[in-house]
Amino acid sequence: MESNTDQTINRSTLRADAANGQALVMLEGIPASPGIAVGTVHLLAPVGSAEAEERRIQEFEIEIEVQRFHAAVGTADSALAQIEAMAREQVHDRAEIFEALRMMLHDPTLHSSICGAIRAHRQTASGAIRMEMTKLAAQFSASSNPTIRSRAEDIHSLQEHLIAALGSAPTAHPLHSGAILAARALSPGDTVLHARGGVGALLLEAGGINSHAAILARAFGLPMVVGIRDLFAQLQPGFGVIVDGYVGRVIINPDQATLQQYQLRNESLQAQRQRYRQLRDLPAETRDAERVTLAANLDLMEEIEGALENGAEEVGLMRTEYLAMHRVAQIGVEEQATAYRQIAERAYPMTVTFRLFDIGSDKLLGNAWSGDSSPLGLRGMRLLLAYQEILYRQLEALLRASEMKNIRVMLPMVGSIEEIRGVKRMVAEIKHQLRIQRVPFDEYLPIGGMIETPAAALIAETLASECAFLSIGTNDLAQYTLAVDRAQESVAAWYDEFHPAVLQLIRTSILAAHRVGVPITLCGEMAGNPLATGLLIGLGLRRFSVAPAQLGPLKLRVRSLSAGEARAWARAALRMPDPGQVRAYLASCMDGGDSEVELE
């Protein structure tokens, strides 16, 4: 669908502006779905907010409450099936979200815990649902991985559907067209209902950019801002607002000057989007005919369509952590293989590079882990080789899913050549077993490694000799090079990917890959940084992997650059002693062709 970016800003839709004497107020949040919308606010009470019965039931009521729970599961499943059908009418590629929710709804582990709470604690069905699903959501919310954290919202969504099915909460109803909907949280089902009802934008106190509500908002072209503190305390029904889904801003009571500013900005953004659409099928090629490959970083299968729409040539990083929930240590081979196969089929003929589980040991192993989960603890290949049964299952699943020959396997945070060889020995053993079982797979499944530490960068040529490809993860590379924990606010100011030491390690890695003759991709945040494009091309990088929304701006920058000029920029930048000087120099090298990117 077309984004609300394309709407004309209509001043008459505002009921509260500077004319009534109220001061202009700005709320800041996290941009979750791009676009600009103008309208009046509607506050949505939380679905399922009615208090659950907390009384202790009598013994004869136990099985009655268990049956009520099972009946609610059936009712909720039917409701989700109807919403799934509605979603398929307009955003077919996102309807799988509801298939996943329905699978979660029928999870035997979830059923066992809720029925167990009813029987053991003599709780009502609603009380048991709230207690057990709140605990489960808390486990996900505690994760340091944003994809896993976002699954907590799925749990809350299912809880709301189940409570509604029990009759203790009303279901949501679509609002009038153009309304700006403000809510504490929003389930995927309600997102579809309100999107089909024609709401103008979504504002949430909770939520993240990887939540299913956010994915659906992007699919429907609805501007969305999440993580807005004290949203309900600052908004009232009927307030006029501008929602800026590009930067995560909500402007209350906009004056005429602000409205005019956003009208001009909206027109500029429409022109920019049109430029990106025109570029989508053109090659990413510099002015002097140097070819560059642009790939996408993805977390979820639902994002593949967006990557294709934005011109991705392949999936350069498919994170597998979305499977790493409370039971990852028990996830079976076939369940993983099914998920990987669906992704490979959906992306075909694009190549998909699956990164093996790359999360802390506390999140991977749950209660089975009691050791250090710091950035310098068990991570990446250290963790996977320490718990080889998890690694073995994931490798077998990827091999079973590789029949279409568009899958690559990437090893996270490789530190030594022996780690790569250990994985290759395990893969050889799995291949032998699959041949005996006559299971088809890709005999030449490419295996590569991530350069994420100074140690890996310094031995990149050795690692490349054992790999089919390499990828540079600049987020962790900068963190470990500069001894800065990105999660610690007290030292965050020292984190800088343009630090000379980081640039030297990137250069070392690229040159090593070239000498061995293996492709090398950069997939960290630096790959999408406008200041870094020319520098990286000048350093010899020809493969970038970025978020889907960054593909258009990146291609525009690549096509505006000369690789010869970029090499001169890189030589100069490498001689500079200070990251601030590097940034200032690169900014001066840009001729203004990327000025519109700032609008995002």
What does this structure look like?
The chain has 600 residues and is an alpha/beta fold. It folds into 3 domains: 4-46 and 173-257, Glucose Oxidase, domain 1 (3-Layer(bba) Sandwich), CATH 3.50.30; 59-166, Enzyme I, Chain A, domain 2; 289-588, TIM Barrel (Alpha-Beta Barrel). It has helices at 62-90, 96-105, 108-121, 125-141, 146-166, 188-196, 212-220, 231-234, 256-279, 304-309, 333-347, 361-365, 380-386, 388-400, 417-436, 454-458, 460-464, 474-482, 500-516, 532-538, 551-560, 563-574, 579-589, and strands at 25-28, 30-33, 36-44, 180-183, 201-204, 224-226, 240-244, 249-252, 293-298, 314-319, 352-355, 407-411, 447-451, 470-472, 520-522, 543-546. Helix 1 (62-90) packs antiparallel against helix 2, helix 6 (188-196) runs parallel beside helix 7 and helix 20 (532-538) packs across helix 22 (563-574). Mean pLDDT is 84; it is low at 1-21, 47-52, 168-172, 366-372 and 592-600.
In short:
With 600 residues, this protein is α/β, with parallel strands linked by helices. The chain is built from 23 helices and 16 strands. The chain folds into three domains: 128 residues, Phosphohistidine domain (Glucose Oxidase, domain 1, 3-Layer(bba) Sandwich); 108 residues, Enzyme I, Chain A, domain 2 (Orthogonal Bundle); 300 residues, TIM Barrel.
